[in-house]
Each structure stands twice: as structure tokens, then as C-alpha cells.
């Protein structure tokens, strides 16, 4: 293990824990205005448009 790539406390990869829920937050941010729940990743526009209701 290379020691020159770690922090002064010899910890690595701690920043990954902070972004754990970002995908779910983005999915909820899409659901709130559109009312369409996209449950599989990656979140793409074609998946969102396929689930949108038809305009009357």
C-alpha cells in the first residue's frame, strides 16, 4: 500500500461516504415536479419521457 496517497491520518476513501445518497436525492428531485418515479440508474431523459402520462 502506498502511504503517499493517504491523508495525514492515513485514511483513504472517506469522501465517498458523503455522496452515498446523491442518486436518490436527484431521483426525488425529478419526482417532485413531474410525478414520475424513475427507479433505475442512470437517470436519463428517455426513461423519464417514457413514463410521463399522455397529454389530454
Structure write-up:
The protein has 56 residues and is mainly alpha-helical. 43% of the residues lie in helices and 0% in strands. It has three helices and no strands. The chain has helices at residues 15-18, 22-34, 45-51. The radius of gyration is 19 Å and the shape is rod-shaped. The termini are far apart. The mean pLDDT is 80.
Nutshell version of this structure?
It contains three helices and no strands. It has 56 residues and is mainly alpha-helical.
- Low-pLDDT regions: none
Largest sheet: none
Judged by helices, strands and strand pairing, the structural class is: mainly alpha
Count every helix, treating DSSP H or I runs of 4 or more residues as helices: 3
SSE layout and pairings?
Blueprint: H1 15-18, H2 22-34, H3 45-51
Amino acid at each position: 500500500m502506498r502511504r503517499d496517497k493517504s491523508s495525514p491520518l492515513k485514511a483513504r476513501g472517506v469522501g465517498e461516504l458523503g455522496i452515498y445518497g446523491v442518486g436518490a436525492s436527484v431521483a426525488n428531485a425529478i419526482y417532485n415536479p413531474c410525478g414520475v418515479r424513475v427507479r433505475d440508474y442512470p437517470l436519463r431523459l428517455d426513461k423519464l419521457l417514457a413514463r410521463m402520462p399522455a397529454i389530454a
